[in-house]
Amino acid sequence: MIRSRLDPRGAEHLARRAAMLAKLAELDAEHAKAVAGGGEKYVERHRGRGKLPARERVELLVDPDSPFLELSTLAAWGSEFQVGAGMVTGIGVIEGVECLITANDPTVRGGASNPWTLRKSLRAAEIALANRLPYVNLVESGGADLPSQKEIFIPGGRIFRDLTRLSAAGVPTVALVFGNSTAGGAYVPGMSDYVVMVRDRAKVFLGGPPLVKMATGEESDDESLGGAEMHARTSGLADYLAEDEHDALRVGRAIVRSLNWRKQGVAPLPAREPAYPAEELLGIVPEDLKVPFDPREVIARVVDGSEFEEFKPLYGPSLVTGWARVHGYPVGVLANARGVLFSQESQKATQFIQLANQSRTPLLFLQNTTGYMVGKDYEQGGIIKHGAMMINAVSNSTVPHLTVVMGASYGAGNYGMCGRAYDPRFLFSWPSAKSAVMGPAQLAGVLSIVGRAAAQARGQVYDEEADAAMRAMVESQIEAESLPFFLSGRLYDDGVIDPRDTRTVLGMCLSAVNSAPVPPAAGFGVFRP
Question: Within this chain, do residues 312 and 417 fall inside the same structural domain, yes or no?
């Protein structure tokens, strides 16, 4: 068992805790914007029509008192579009079955899809396919946000492709249609395995009455063109005709129950709580990420029984590796201890990743890295080839990967520690996280050195005042663009989470991962560095 050296009453811990709580207050405020949807006016208008908001639909769909892991809550943050991107996505339990659930928010521009809605929807389908989770769509959308159609139309076809690929892979797709599902949105129910439509509410058509009038001159009304009863009686698109929204959700639950769905992965052992309280996670990460911290203190508050079998503890000490369990599921943990990755750490990681693949053990990456070490001695010592070995191992590992960005995530260290580009099954950030090609001061300094050298080559006097202004501007820009809200808004993670929820979130993800069968082993043995 890890023996914690943390002093939860010490001044350092209390200062770090206060800084984290301030960041969490900001996170709560941003989450509230997503929960508010289109705002009080449009929510009340929606309720006045006898309709339920998106999150209430989800709450009534999932099993009572079961958790719902919402994903990409801050999608579109910092853009011209509403925080949350007009859609709710997440993993919830329906009739005992873990499902990927999406719900259009019709209080945000009528549920129309903007470029961030598209990205959020595509990420949801990717998670459903990789983890073999039945995919339930709660549909009420006016189709594409027309002013931004140039960013939606062509890539948006992937939504329909993904639905058909899910079905072809034997992953059920269910559409519960509560309102309009028009234009391209009509293909969501059209390509789903099961379709439920609400009488007098659901409308599914490729072109509504105005477009039909313009295109063909034909006069028609909503019901005869695409109403729920017409699709149930005439076109056959609707498999079930629900009387109201509550009835549609009841039918949706019955459909999932009838699937007789079974998990195909590993069954967990009984879970054991860590020996140390999760509350103490708030005071571990320093506000200044240049200050290192011991990731074992995090591991001790996340893994079962705080038990951790460390691998190669004396070799490559800047990277902690070892075996543990989270909610009864086995994991191999890689956690940055001092930020920088040297050759020894890279070789150690490569061997450990291969061992995890041999035993078919999922990998958990806890990121706090400034990247691979630079400098003449390190280049001559082979840091490029050793870093490449680690990145190669991550790239070709076939076991599920989970990533949590606790602090820094800079440079190629982001790649070697399984950043978004390396397709972890799930990736979450703490409010303390920062990610960029390098730190703001380093990036601004590089630009200054290059500019100074260019001026010297031209025989010009370097403008020191302009250089100082440039450095300040660049540092400010990179700092803003490396913050977790900005990155989460672009779906570079699956959400910013409270550190205290890390164990719960990882447990839900490991359970979801094991809905799919254990992936086949790779074709190589372990290469010892």
Answer: yes
